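> forwarded from #structure-qc
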């Protein structure tokens, strides 16, 4: 019976429920034909539930499917994060579920209506399959020929992202604590426009403190929507960071022109580094 079940599942190429479609070959989830952004682990959780609708899939079964025994990760945290991302994409709720129901201390159950779409290539007669030449390594799909890329360490990415926010927070607070020095440096470097430069740095420092505290708090509590919020904030953060990338020029008389320019170059890179770290936080285990 188990072998028969596996053969049946091997012939499925897609699962459909409500206005969603899960494409197993492409590992993509679509809604009304539009591809949704869903990472591999939440997609694998969804497929595991769709394979057995109305049946409880235990947390241990999901662990064995997503994380082999030789993989050392915080399984509970990883599964909770994957489930939160899946529910966010589906527009589902743990308290009043339409699709995924939480079974306390056991696992999850898919409660919606599911239809399986058979794979036409998989149901060809065995004789016809045997007569077809095996694809060469050059013709093999890229997904089968290329191994999955190693995942980044999510903990390391979170630590580095947190440190970058603390760095900016220190900049802002130092400027706000020494407004007299900030005004003097602005007038000395920018001369006639010094008062305008001072006002820009004062306002952006106040805004920056609030934004960095938000990012620090969201990172510390592992807010699962932080990635989306960061994408919305990034254009404004980019402008903010570019303005403060020029701040070492205000203390060029103390640093020297060479070190001031090197600091400017490093700070110009920081917005892109933070964006990369955010992607690592989302895709890492």
């Amino acid at each position: 019976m188990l072998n028969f079940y596996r053969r049946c599942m091997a012939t499925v190429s897609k699962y459909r429920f409500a206005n969603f479609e899960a494409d197993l070959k492409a590992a993509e989830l679509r809604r009304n034909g539009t591809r949704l952004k869903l990472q591999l682990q939440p997609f694998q959780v969804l497929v595991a539930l769709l394979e057995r609708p109305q049946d409880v899939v235990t947390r241990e079964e999901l662990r064995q499917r997503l994380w082999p025994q030789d993989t050392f990760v915080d399984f509970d945290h990883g599964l909770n994060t994957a489930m939160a991302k899946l529910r966010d994409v589906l527009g589902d709720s743990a308290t009043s579920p339409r699709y995924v129901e939480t079974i306390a201390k056991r696992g999850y159950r898919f409660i919606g209506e599911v239809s399986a779409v058979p794979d036409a290539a998989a149901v060809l007669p065995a004789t016809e399959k045997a007569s077809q030449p095996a694809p060469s390594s050059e013709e093999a799909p890229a997904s089968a020929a290329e191994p999955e890329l190693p995942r980044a360490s999510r903990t390391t990415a979170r630590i580095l992202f947190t440190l970058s926010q603390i760095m900016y927070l220190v900049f802002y607070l130092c400027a706000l604590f020494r407004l007299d020095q900030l005004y003097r440096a602005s007038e000395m470097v920018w001369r006639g426009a010094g008062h305008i430069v001072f006002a820009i740095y004062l306002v952006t420092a106040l805004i920056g403190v609030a934004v960095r505290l938000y990012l620090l708090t969201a990172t510390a509590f592992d807010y699962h929507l932080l990635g989306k919020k960061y994408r919305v904030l990034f254009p404004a953060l980019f402008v903010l960071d570019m303005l403060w990338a020029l701040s070492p020029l205000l203390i060029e008389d103390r640093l020297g022109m060479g070190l001031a320019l090197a600091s400017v170059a490093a700070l110009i890179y920081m917005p892109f580094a933070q964006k990369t770290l955010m992607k690592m936080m989302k895709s890492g285990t």
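QC bot note: The first strand starts at residue 12 and ends at 17. Strands lie at 12-17, 20-23, 28-31, 34-36, 56-58, 100-103, 107-110, 115-118.
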